[in-house]
User: What shape does this take?
Amino acid sequence: MEINKWALVTGASGGVGKEIATILAGKGYNLVLVARSGDKLEELKKELSEKNKVEIKCFSCDLSKDNAAHEVFNFCESEKIKIDLLMNNAGCGLYGSSIELGDKAVGMLKLNIITLTQMCAIFGKDMAERKSGSILNIGSIAGNQPTPMFASYAASKNYVLSYSLALRHELGKYGVNVTCVQPGYIRTSFDNNCGIVSEKYKKFSYKNGMSAYAVAKCAVNSVLAKRSYVRAGFGNKVTAFASGLIPKNFLAWCISNSMKSLTSDTKKAN
Ligand SMILES: NC(=O)c1ccc[n+]([C@@H]2O[C@H](COP(=O)([O-])OP(=O)(O)OC[C@H]3O[C@@H](n4cnc5c(N)ncnc54)[C@H](OP(=O)(O)O)[C@@H]3O)[C@@H](O)[C@H]2O)c1
Assistant: This one.
């Protein structure tokens, strides 16, 4: 199936991003794949090119660096590619006490907030000028709730939701859609990458997690249907609804206790 449209997927080297890229290639989208691991992107390009009649370009880039979004846009310009579908999926978490993590949060915040914002502004402007296009931002259920030990990560995902909903209204008049998808636990490398050591937590997260494919399918369907925001999975819809009814301060206390219990097999859990 050839549709002559280009989608850009960040964080395409693994997890949800890889599945998003696979689904979009199956739908006939040409792809720009972005992540740090250039070798993994090339592997995926080979795999998807063999199965689908699509064009694929890889751009290896650390999206937590200043100017990364401009570099990605310049790459697309140099390849004469206009992006129809921007999938801002790349993100990382950071587990631990905020005062102990200190500056470690900065890289995560740049990736989850700053670069995502710049990607939306740069590619969104280009889409607005062409009066067409769609943007997907991946948030998190954690973005609806203050989450001790994931304090800055959860807050960064709160930003993603709020920003996406506002941007949707700004860009709607140009015919450009913005969608935010909020997943809960997903069975990917995310837990290991965010520095959590508790096996108890990881088991819980795995048992209650959705597959990367299921989240990717929800993300692709939601953005193509131009939904405003979607909580991925029935359980997450219920959790998010219920947590919205609880006063935020009490919610933070409940989550703090739940985190303590979930990480009780590690000494430093607090
Ligand atoms: N897993 C969960 O439980 C969960 C829950 C809710 C929301 N989410 C959100 O879902 C999205 C996808 O997460 P995932 O579970 O698929 O995570 P993952 O398995 O850790 O994959 C993260 C992807 O982002 C890329 N990435 C990380 N840091 C990057 C950087 N500095 N520059 C460029 N690319 C970078 C990684 O590629 P490289 O390492 O090659 O750069 C990888 O492709 C994220 O936004 C995450 O916050 C995840």
